[in-house]
Amino acid sequence: MRLSRGLSTVENFGELFHFLKSSNRLPHRLLEPSCKSMASDLVTKAKEAFIDDHFELAADLYSQAILINPTDADLFSDRAQANIKLQNFTDAVSDANKAIELDPSNPKAYLRKGTACFNLEEYQTAKTAFETGASLAPEDRRFSEWIKKCDNCIAEENGELSTPSLGATPINVAKTDDAPKDAEQVNSVSNEEAITKPTNSKYRHEFYQKPEEVVVTIFAKGIPTESVSVNFGEQILSVTIDVPGEEAYTFQPRLFGKIIPAKCKYVVLSTKLEIRLAKVEPVHWTSLEFSKNSLVVRSSTVSSGNQRPMYPSSKPTKDWDKLEAQVKKEEKDEKLDGDAALNKFFREIYQDADEDTRRAMKKSFVESNGTVLSTNWNEVGSKEVEGTPPDGMELKKWEI
Hints:
Immunoglobulin-like; four-stranded antiparallel sheet; 9 strands
């Protein structure tokens, strides 16, 4: 059996097994017992790696086991826990959702989903997951502890919590793992780790909005559709562009406002990735990403569909009417000397004059070659105005 073709891209045992199985090159007699044995060995190694705090290796081993047995809910649930340790919370939510899809009665999957969502600050979604898990495993007190933490965070977001007194002991909310179960866990969560959102600036992005939606554009030219992964959360957007042979691009902002995941969509075009986020409320987003100092501006009317999209700008808004009035005032108050002052004086006369005065000024100035300026039409209207040079100067006419 020749296996050389196609193996250049196979990097581990799980992918090798998947390649052989999908290409019908694996003898059928090996499928059942060998499959279970290989998956079991990978899971054992993954658990050992996890215990030794080698979380990246554990996640990789679980991935290989999933290639062999893609219908095992526990594998996805365990990989979700490894991703939580790696702070890949969006991936952890995806794994937990897959585990729940395969086995809706698995409380561990709901615990993983709730933990990941809590770290993403999607407290309501996390609470719902913990409540479902608690109904499946009422004896597990971790669910009730997590639900209390979610309630506190939700209340804080809504401004329902009073400011603690100076002597009060602050409550530490652990964000790195399951709720503490014993003394060892309490010590491990006391050193709270900061949530990181890995991203890079490989592609430029911008957004504009309407009252009912926000449109995010990522300028990625010539990207295959199969290399793009977009996931939507309650207030999370997760974008991954993973082109073979290139560094993966990730963009995972916590959004300014909440969205409706079921109504969100995206399309991969030849020059860009366009993502449409459906707003829960028709409010104006002052930025794409959430900030505790963000100001929410509520729309007074619902969009008619013809309203122009609003683009965010860092430039201050100018009152052009006020600016024009200020310029006119400065021109009026301007102190000029010599010819500049004389020209300004004549401009003001011409500007405020009636039609006969303007006609007299034009006729006298042109016919006298700029030496006479009269405002009396009765005087200059019926005759040609002769030039009058200044004293000591001679007027000459040039002939062509």
